[in-house]
TrEMBL record:
InterPro entries named in the record: AAA+_ATPase, ABC_transp_ATP-bind, ABC_transporter-like_ATP-bd, ABC_transporter-like_CS, Oligopep_ABC_C, P-loop_NTPase
Organism: Streptomyces nymphaeiformis
Keywords of this entry: ATP-binding, Nucleotide-binding, Transport
Organism phylogeny: Bacteria, Bacillati, Actinomycetota, Actinomycetes, Kitasatosporales
Name under which the protein is recorded: Peptide/nickel transport system ATP-binding protein
Gene Ontology biological-process annotations: peptide transport; transmembrane transport
Family, as annotated: Belongs to the ABC transporter superfamily.
PROSITE patterns assigned to the protein according to its UniProt record, in alphabetical order: ABC_TRANSPORTER_1, ABC_TRANSPORTER_2
A Pfam entry, by short name: ABC_tran
Biased amino acid composition, Low complexity: 369-405
Signal peptide positions (record): none
Length: 418
């Protein structure tokens, strides 16, 4: 992967605002700003990990770039073609190239269909006749994802969670896609099988030359699979960097907080007291996100400028883009001119997140605007999946949960090992 090559996917200013309607006349009274201005690229053959707390817009972003949702604003280019507002027929050829693996292997497979008909559905939808026939190809795909090809006539309930996710993967790969968006593909699975499914995705990427956008709740899950990682907060990317830079010197306070919750897999470093940053409160409501920097209500470094001026996402180190007025470990970093108009305070963190001697846990202040799950529940489910979506795919939007995910250890890291 090289940033000098043409991106497979380029996203510019991407937005999705779900309208909130009330009353008899269903007047729009507001909007859930689930995705509110994303800029990123995905290069051929790479895995872009996307992390962030529950409700920050990861799934919405995944459904926008696979065009299961219509964007409110911005641009999505796939292989140089603008696909932002393509209709069903315009998207048909593209459905072969862009596929999605869903979080819930139980809800995303139709229980009344056999595995054979689930995995062969993409061929039927696209009118494709593979060499040797559909059945032979489906059995080959089942073998490819580690399932018994003889189980062609079985139903989803006869499989375990991990096996069901393999069925979902086989379906996603049926048409030899170029880009696969995997939305939390292992978070509904038992810890013991998470690593198996992640390794399978890894092997398939190498074998089939796939490009992944891999969505996860926390950084430990994407650690082993991602080349670059985008950290999202309340509908925006706050940091985007290659894996090494992000893990070794995160620059955004939110990334640092997420990082502090990642378990240390190296046994030699076990027992070393690690820095813990406990984020208090929930992610604020995306209906009325905080002014200025959206993270200011929970950020321990926030100053006046953070409350009024939104920090742009700028490349502060080669390959490391950060949206923060007071980035971490930024000594010696030249701040681009766009940043010079605002007051900048460069602070070096007391210890890097991986440093052995850690400061006392940092507690962020209470958020000013706690998330309102009720408010989002009352919103109109305006954008049902478009007809190009696989017939079995049923996924409902999830309401925001608490912010505890930052301190929740993710088991995959341990399971996968270093
Ligand atoms: N169809 C919809 N209508 C209204 N609001 C929605 C819809 N889909 C998502 N939302 C809201 O948009 C916000 C982002 O949701 P999204 O599912 O993208 O978050 P997420 O980061 O994937 O969360 P999780 O980690 O829980 O899966 C949430 O506040 C959610 O309630
Ligand atoms: S801009 Fe300010 S509030 Fe936002 S992350 Fe940076 S220091 Fe914290
Ligand atoms: Mg999600």
């Amino acid at each position: 992967m090289s940033e000098t090559m043409e991106p497979l996917l380029k996203v510019t200013g991407l937005q999705k605002h779900f309208p909130i309607r009330k009353g008899l006349l269903q007047r729009q009274t507001g909007a859930v700003k689930a995705v509110d201005g994303l800029d990123f690229e995905v290069y051929p053959g790479e895995t872009l990990g996307v992390v962030g707390e529950s409700g920050c817009g990861k799934s919405t972003m995944g459904r926008l770039i696979t065009r299961l949702l219509e964007p409110t604003g911005g641009k999505i280019e796939f292989q140089g073609t603008d696909i932002s507002h393509l209709g069903v027929s315009g998207m048909r050829p593209l459905r072969r190239d862009v596929q999605m693996i869903f979080q819930d292997p139980y809800g995303s497979l139709n229980p009344r269909h056999t595995v054979g008909s689930i995995v062969s559905a993409p061929f039927k939808l696209q009118g494709v006749e593979p060499e040797g026939g559909v059945k032979k190809e489906v059995q080959r795909l089942l073998g490819l994802v580690g399932l018994n090809p003889e189980h062609y006539n079985r139903y989803p309930h006869e499989f375990s969670g991990g096996q069901r996710q393999r069925i979902g993967i086989a379906r996603a790969l049926a048409l030899k896609p170029k880009l696969v968006v995997a939305d939390e593909p292992v978070s509904a699975l038992d810890v013991s099988i998470q690593a198996q499914v992640v390794n399978l995705l890894d092997d398939l990427q190498e074998e089939l030359g796939l490009t992944y956008v891999f969505i996860a709740h926390d950084l430990s899950v994407v650690r082993h699979v991602s080349d670059r990682i985008a950290v999202m907060y309340l509908g925006k990317i706050v940091e985007l960097a290659d894996r090494k830079s992000l893990y070794e010197s995160p620059m955004h306070p939110y990334t640092r907080a997420l990082m502090s919750a990642v378990p240390i897999p190296d046994p030699r470093r076990k027992g070393v007291k690690g820095e813990r940053i406990l984020l208090k409160g929930d992610v604020p409501s995306p209906i009325a996100p905080p002014s200025g920097c959206r993270f200011h209500t929970r950020c321990w470094k926030a100053t006046e400028v953070c409350k009024t001026q939104e920090p742009p996402l700028l490349e502060l180190r080669p390959g490391q883009r950060v949206a923060c007025h007071h980035p971490e470990d930024a000594e010696g970093v030249t701040i681009p001119s766009a940043r010079e108009s605002v007051e900048v305070t460069i602070t070096k963190s007391p210890e890097s997140p991986k440093a052995p001697e850690a400061p006392e846990p940092v507690e962020a202040p209470e958020p000013e605007a706690p998330a309102s799950a009720e408010a989002t529940e009352s919103t109109e489910q305006a954008d049902a999946p478009k007809s190009g979506e696989p017939a079995e795919a049923t996924e409902s939007p999830e309401a925001p949960e608490g912010a505890e995910s930052v301190s929740k250890p993710a088991a995959k890291d341990d399971a996968a090992g270093e």
